[in-house]
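Take a look at the protein record below and tell me what you see:
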Amino acid sequence: MLNDAFSHQLPDVDPGETQEWLDSLDAVVEHRGKARARYLLARLGEAAHDRQLGVAASVWTPYVNTIPTDGQPWFPGDFEMERRIRAFIRWNAVAMVVRANKAAPGIGGHLSTYASSAALYEVGFNHFFRGQADGTPGDHVYIQGHASPGIYARAYLEGRFDEVDLDRFRLDIDTPARAGRGLSSYPHPHLMGDFWQFPTVSMGLGPINSIYQARFDRYLNNRHIDDTSRSRVWAFVGDGETDEPETLGSIDLAAREGLDNLTWVVNCNLQRLDGPVRGNGKIIQELEGIFRGNGWNVIKVVWGAAWDELLAQDVDGVLLNKMNTTVDGEFQRYAVESGAYIREHFFGPDPRLRKLVEHLSDEQLQSLPRGGHDYAKVYAAYRAATEMTGAPTAILAQTVKGWALGSKVEGRNSTHQIKKMDTEQLLELRERLHLEDDVSEADLAGGDPPYLRFADDSPEHRYLMERRRGLDGPLPARTLPVRRGLGSVEEGTWNELLAGSHGQEVSTTMAFTRLLRSLARDPVVGDRVVPIIPDEARTFGMDALFRELGIYAAKGQRYEPVDHHLLLSYVEKSDGQILEEGITEAGSMASWTAAATAYATTGVPMLPFFTFYSMFGFQRVGDLIWAAGDARARGFLLGATAGRTTLQGEGLQHTDGHSQLLASTVPACRAYDPAFAWEMALIIRDGLARMYPPSAAGEKVGGEDVFYYLTLYNENYEMPPMPETDGGIDELTGWVTRGLYHSHGAPQAAHQASVLYSGSGWTAAKEAQRLLHEDYDVGVDLWSATSYNELRREALAVERWNRLHPDAPEALPLITRLLSAGTGPVVAVSDFLSAWADQVVRWVPRPFSVLGTDGYGRSDDRAHLRRFFETDAAHVVVAVLSALVRSGELDPSVATGAIDRFGIDPDIDPPWTR
């Protein structure tokens, strides 16, 4: 099969010349070998690229360093000073984990990840990563979660932590008996809000978030909201982590957007948690092809300087061929074997290879370094990455997992699980790090390795601190004050939704779109609104915003769209406001997280609204949502086309009946299911007030670290206006946001009951109220249950207070107090699983039954779907009548008569089994 068959589709204007070139290639292969032929082709490719001939670059290069020795820049630091600082950090990282596991056996921690990547981090900290001390956003550094001990160890040398803090590693919870502050296991801004910038340890989330953070920095810059032109995003990624779909799934976006402010450092220690990443292959070569094929600049740092001399003498290309053909499983083996083994098995089979290293001792062969441990080569790669324009850079650095931790740890398949080191191992580590003058054998006798720190007036401490001062302060850090404040939304912005739909039938999704437009037009905060949509704007009726706000595209719109003559045409702008992400909920969520944490990462609060198909939110990207909570995100998630029965015609994999229940599992999420447009407006208004109180430049960021989730529906019905109360809009906001309020009184009747509705359950509740009154003499009052999640949280808080204050009068939860005023049974109806309303069952003071949409979705119209899931008005009527029968108020014949009347089959299998 031809690799480039296009050449056979074009006319050959000089067949003789063509044949001469082919004959020359054959002659080189025959007389000088394939290695020489490959070398010549590579040089021709470089020459073609230099002459801009439009020849595609190869996605694969030989298994050597990208930057040649003569291309390495001068190293501006002090090698020996930085080696000694690095040795202290390495030692303290180990001491922290070992001491923690002695104090609390099994507490965990990781030694090997940072051990393999210490040089990768230290080159950055000493020469590249910019802090925020000058009042700018600085750089955004996504640190591998398992490397956290090394980051804490550096902060200790900088004086940001003390010994008592290091001894609180993985001991988060404060108690009277514990000194110091807890140091979280991994990067968790929720737990260490002044230190960690980004949560990264859930594999794949750091990489995808870093891409969209880099893009959001450009978005802020292009929209003239913030000057992020000097900010770079650095993401440290494990080679095994690239198996996660989120890691590599969006790398094409970074190239497409030309994000030369993004650098990934892929720590290729060739190992997963259990064994080799690609034992039978070569992960660096695989990743090189993936990144180059997706338009990234790739810099490989494979070999340390000691290999340069050997490669320079490889006139036959045998060493290069050996490097190219040796699989990772073998390289891992060489990392733990003796020099004699390496001589025999790597260099030995070919006499030309053996001759290359005959002047080296076995010890020298054993210590031939991998590139990721060579400080000068790592510096050269970082320098080249920062000078790259027009494309993101991936640095693929080969390291050894557990490097320098000793023969029982480094390079072993079990190295990731090793948390403890005995005295013998610590002595070996001391020797490897040249710390014999700093740590005595007596220091190790008790099993608690000491922490090492430079004196404040020492050359090492001065050097360490001067490097960071020159780079604008310490990292990681999350202490940036407000650089551009955020005012309050003008009250008139809410008026359209609060006034109702004036007889017109609209959906809550349509109402939200109108509110989003009003917010974007708000003269105070309009430019801070960030609408985010994953290729569903037309589904949600949001396409009207395309022309008005523009879709963000870094290069603008370089074509005339097919619908250019229409009012709702597709308009892209370099300063567009809408982030229309394409078919990627994960990418959209990563964009939302970047916007929702901008108040902390750049000091400029933004107002992100991510609207998605509700089925594809919490269920699909729940891990990213959880991480957003960890990152202290603030913003709004909108689950449009919600409900198991409201979205007619779509079927099993599109109809959401459980996102509200999933939302209840995220502590920072405030989840609501509004039935009316005015409810939705007040919830969003409340969220803005809680998350983004007005702030001025230079102030500390205020507000609550929460985000809101609202489910929206595509069912049209008339939206009532906001009710009038003595307390006005603030009183009504309190009603709606607490989760339950009395919306419609019961008509006079012989029997009484209550129905709780939420979202589109309103239509069934309203019709059931009418039927019960007219046909069964039952008066039903209606309650809007905007959030069972909030009702449950409040009830749990009251329950806890009662438990801890046994000497005080018993307090009652809100739902108990509200429903105690009525009589008769209570029935809840929603378009969500019955388990959602079941959350509050133990606090309901009257007989309580729930109608929910349990089971897989179906494709049909709303009437048949609601009959199938037993949530239509008929089933609400039967539920109320049956409850009255159980309480002795009605004869059973009344309920059975209603079952017959409405054609309900009482013996059919429940919907969740069908």
Observations:
- The chain has a mean pLDDT of 92.
- The CA atoms of residues 668 and 706 lie 5 Å apart.
- The chain is about 40% helix and 10% strand.
